[in-house]
Amino acid sequence: MRDVTRLPDLALRRHGGSVVAASDESFAGKENLIRPGKPGFQAATFDGKGQVYDGWETRRRREPGHDWAIVRLGLPGVIRGVVVDTAWFTGNYPPHAAVEAAEVAGHPSAAELERAPWVTIVPRSPLQGDSEHLFEVPGERRHTHVRLVMYPDGGIARLRVHGEPRPDLSVWDGLGLDLAALENGGLVTACSDAFYSSPHNVIAPGLARNQAEGWETARRRDGGNDWLVVRLAGRGRVSLAEIDTTNLIFNAPAAVTLTGLDGDREVPLLPRTPLRPDTPHRFRLGPHDPVDHVRVDIHPDGGLARVRLWGHLV
Q: How far apart are CA 269 and CA 260, in angstroms?
């Protein structure tokens, strides 16, 4: 079975996701659903509403119905799997949940989203308390929003929506763009090592705030080097490469090499070039034939905060 959780979380707040509406959030805010990291908990911590939970919790329903929350995906795309996490919710988790999805253009309001044509991607399914529930999602349909439905009420700590970004690139017609960026449809398709953190971090939006928000490998003892392969947003030519080692002070690579891939053909982009710790590097690249993937080799190991590959689609 493919581990879909290795794919980017399209809903993550750090990736631009937002919980735009919810039926109720009396005990704990809807925004917690898409926060980075594992849910936390401290027993016997009470505010005016009760025990504090790092998740979304609704009131006890006294009438028929169910609760729901609508999430705008920060990275619209094809959903491969959904994780519904009830961490720390034991006597107050919902017994069942479902997930729906929709593709809505533009910047719709919450009212417009409620009227959107939703399709079920995870049918009504049983849940357990304090547990992660993984549901694989078939199909190739693109979605921009998901709706988490719980029956009838209760608390859910996190919602993870793993998949492949498929943005609308028409806004970039005639302009240059970061061909590697997750938000533009880039994806890490192969990686030598992800011991400390996910390689997808290097093409995530924004700057890495700390070492954990980059990609870092284990220490190599075999004389080889670590690498990753980025599928570009589309076939294109890269003019500028940004290799950022910010926050990586004693574990930055000594050097980097960039190689374009176009089918079975390799296109040299950047020869082995020294890197400095905790430094954003920018390298102008010479003219080259179009490529659809770029291999990033770090020598011998270590970590990168971000990789940006600026260029033009062909």
A: 6
Buried b (16+ CB within 10 A) or exposed e, 103-119: ebeeebeeeebeebebe
167 three-state secondary structure: coil
How far from chain centre, in Å, is Cα 106?
A: 21
What is the SS3 assignment for 31?
helix
70, 14 contact by CB (below 8 A): no
Tokens 């005639």 belong to which residue? 174
User: Coil, strand or helix: which one is 139?
Assistant: coil
Domains of the chain: 4-165 (2.60.120.260), 169-313 (2.60.120.260)
Q: Is the pTM of this model over 0.85?
A: yes
Report residue 76 CA to chain centroid gap.
Answer: 10
How do the pLDDT tens digits run along the chain, 314 residues long?
Answer: 468 999 999 999 999 999 999 999 989 999 999 999 999 988 878 887 888 888 999 999 999 999 999 999 999 999 999 999 999 999 999 999 999 999 999 999 999 998 999 999 999 999 999 999 999 999 999 999 999 999 999 999 999 999 999 999 988 888 899 999 999 999 999 999 999 999 999 999 999 999 999 999 999 999 999 999 999 999 999 999 999 999 999 999 999 999 999 999 999 999 999 999 999 999 999 999 999 999 999 999 999 999 999 999 99
How distant is the alpha carbon of residue 90 from its chain centre? 28
